[in-house]
Amino acid sequence: MQDPSKRKMQLSEEPLSQQDWLKRPEEVTPGIVPVYDGCEPDTGDRSFFEAVNDAIAVHDIRTLKFIDINQKFTEMFGYTLEEMQRGGVGLLAARDQNYREEEVLQGLRKAAMGQSQIYEEEAYRKTGEQVWMEVSLKRGKIRGQDCLLALIRDVTDRKQAEGELRESERKFRTLFESSHDALLMIDENGIFDCNRKALELYGLSSKEDVIGRSPGEFSPAWQPDGRNSIEGAIENYQAALEKGSCFFEWIHFRSDGTNIITEVLLNRLELGGKKVIQALIWDIGERKRAEEKLRKYQERLRTLALDLSLVQERERRRIAIDLHDHIGQNLAFSKMKLGALRESVRGTSLYDPLEEVYALVVQTIEDTRSLVFELSPPVLYELGLEAGVEWLAERIQAEYGISVECEHDRVNKPLDEEMRIVLFQIARELLLNVAKHAQAGQVKVTISREHGQIRLVVEDNGIGFNPFPVGMAKGEKTGFGLFSIRERMNYLGGEIWIDSAAKRGTRVMLQVPLNRKRKRKIKELSHEYQNPGSR
Questions:
Q1: How far is CA 487 from the centre of its chain?
Q2: Helix axes 385-400, 417-433, angle to 10 degrees
Q3: CA–CA separation, 7 vs 290, rounded Å?
Q4: Fold of 179-283
Q5: SS3 string of 32-68?
């Protein structure tokens, strides 16, 4: 006889015969023998039985009733062996309205006939808490006794995780399909999914027309930057994989051959342990067209404003010439006549009144001359930009008490009237800014010609300023004065640089090409604004 201390729990695959299975339980002999014969359990058997991390239930092979359970079973479901023997397997599903005990028993019968069963099922603890279990049913023998062994594993956490994953996937799919943006999912083999908006973007009706293809196949051969579309698409894909994301503009085309200007954002994702790329695509054609239209209108407005400024300058000059040629000459002639008349009545009572009138005429002539220079300095038109700026420097020095030094290279500068006027206006505005705001004692103005460019530099030793205040981007304008200067420089095709900081003065340098394309004339622009649909 085998030593009880060495007995082990054994499983046998020998199936119960159909004839024995069909017998009633009371016809089968001998009677049911308890697992441990009512004696103290064998230490080796029981320790193994209790050491297993899964719940174990032993069923009678014929009645299918519980013979034994381990402690893990009680911990998992909260029931004792006696309770399970009284209530049966129905206790574990008592709160499930769809529970059919016969279905469970059928599974047990199949296992008892040697057909091992593995399945997942919901159950309920004694407390009413739901639990998911993975059940493995197998026929075997324990100490020579035929029995049905059920190993039960708690898979609630796994099922919840799977449920959450399914819900997450459902939400993702819902968002994916209902997104207002075109979406592509891409891996090393090409596009493996797309949403409805992507099909609309490309003018296609079926995902089969997209899946398996490269995004470069939905693009013209070349992109505007000169890159081959297929190679460029691969480069962008690799960049997104390495950096996590990649944003760029891209030209796609629809199935009818129409080009689409798009912005594309590639994001690296991980699906099923595999790195893939999600592509969000926005059709920005309308925005680009609106931007281009706005840019053209801004250019027209800028040109119109500057041309109007030139017209204003020409009108000022015309008025100055009229003042000089007509009013000025008449006043000069009146002064000569009054002078002669005054001398003819010297020593009489008429002399003093005539002297007063004579003095008023002289003052009016001086005022008229000053007004002529203020309106439009003749020296600018007669002697050129350098002479006009020197005259301006003398006026600023006399009026504001600032030392203004002018320097130029004496090189011929063939400036047309328009450029001469605009540069003079800018120099005047810069010098007035220094006089009013810089608290400077010295100013230097330099005019030179270098490599086909006219360069105008105004620098002072004043308090300086921040050309780009806090919160303002470098491209933004800092005030109407600088904005106006920048616009005029843009009109001339030139550039402006400002170097300034608090307590170390300011240096403004302007550079304009001598050979430039003239902007459209004011008449053309006026015609466009009166007839906006003509172009």
A1: 30
A2: 20
A3: 88
A4: Beta-Lactamase (3.30.450)
A5: CCCCCCCCCCCHHHHHHHHHCCCEEEEEECCCCCEEE
Distance CA 443, CA 461 (A): 7
pLDDT in tens, 493-527: 888 888 888 778 899 999 988 876 544 443 443 34
Q: Which CATH architecture has domain 4-153?
A: 2-Layer Sandwich (3.30)
> Beta strands 182-187 and 190-194: pairing type?
antiparallel
Q: Which residue, among 499, 497, 495, 515, has the nearest Cα to 507 in the 3D structure?
A: 499
**H or E segment at 368?**
helix 351-375
- Residues contacting residue 246 through CB under 8 Å, at least 6 positions apart: 236, 239, 240, 264, 265, 266
Q: What gap in Å lies between CA 198 and CA 181, rounded to an integer?
A: 8
CB 55 within 8 A of CB 47: no
- Residue 21 CA, chain-centre distance (Å), reads 72
Residue ranges per structural domain of the chain: 4-153, 179-283, 381-535
List, in order, residues 6 or more apart from 500 with CB less than 8 Å away: 464, 465, 466, 467, 506, 507
Which class for 440: exposed (0-12), middle (13-18), buried (19 or more C-beta within 10 A)?
buried
The lowest-confidence range among 13-22, 135-144, 163-172, 212-221 is 13-22
Amino acid letter at 110? K
Question: Could you give the C-alpha distances from 54 to 14, 123, 134, 152, in angstroms and in order?
Answer: 24, 15, 10, 6
Whether residue 204 contacts residue 186, with contact meaning beta carbons closer than 8 Å, is answered with: no
Angle between helices 480-492 and 285-322 (to 10 degrees): 90
* H or E element that contains 75: helix 71-77
Report helix, strand or coil for 335. helix
Contact 480, 452 (CB under 8 A): no
Beta strands in 62-129 (DSSP E): 66-69, 117-124
**Burial classification of residue 349, based on how many CB atoms lie within 10 Å of its CB (0-12 exposed, 13-18 middle, 19 or more buried):** exposed
Note whether 4-153 and 381-535 share their fold: no
* Distance, CA of 221 to CA of 418 (rounded, Å): 46
CATH for the stretch 381-535: 3.30.565.10
Lowest mean pLDDT among 139-148, 316-325, 418-427: 316-325
Per-residue pLDDT tens over the stretch 54-111: 999 999 998 889 999 999 999 999 999 999 999 888 888 766 666 667 777 888 888 8
- Is there a contact between 210 and 199 (Cβ–Cβ < 8 Å)? yes
Read off φ and ψ for residue 523, nearest 5 degrees.
Answer: -65, -40
